[in-house]
Amino acid sequence: MPYEDMSAMQHRLELDGRERLVVTGVEEVERFDEEEIVMSTTAGTLVVGGTGLHIGKLNLDGGELHVDGSIHTLLYEDNAPGGQGGFLRRLFG
User: Fold this and answer.
1) Which residues contact 5 (CB under 8 A, 6 or more apart)?
2) Most exposed: 49, 55, 58, 59, by fewest CB within 10 Å?
3) CA R_g for the chain
4) What are phi and psi of 4, to 5 degrees?
5) How many of the other CB atoms lie within 10 Å of CB of 63?
6) Which distant-in-sequence residues (6+ apart) come within 8 Å of 40 by Cβ?
């Protein structure tokens, strides 16, 4: 696997206080509003909860997302094969 492909698959969270979050390894933003952002990452579905959440930067080609606001929760939903699936799959069946 070329180096570029490996780096695109890496997933990282960088939380600065509780007001700025940088996520790498983002594949898709499934849903967002001021209280919740749901995204698919290379490590599974990530749900970010808080208040006044805003997407400051989104680069799906590079797999990077910046979130500003008051971040209260970070929750991973397991997308493993044979599992129950992600949050939205269980919610909408």
Assistant:
1) none
2) 59
3) 13
4) -60, -40
5) 20
6) 26, 27, 28, 30, 46, 79, 86
* Domains defined along the chain, listed by start: 3-92 (2.60.40.2000)
pLDDT of 34-90, one tens digit each? 999 999 999 999 999 999 999 999 998 999 999 999 999 999 987 554 445 555 555
First to last CA, the chain: 35
* Closest alpha carbon to 33 in 16, 50, 14, 8: 50
- Where is 92: in which H helix or E strand? helix 87-92
Q: Map tokens 């490590």 to a residue.
A: 43
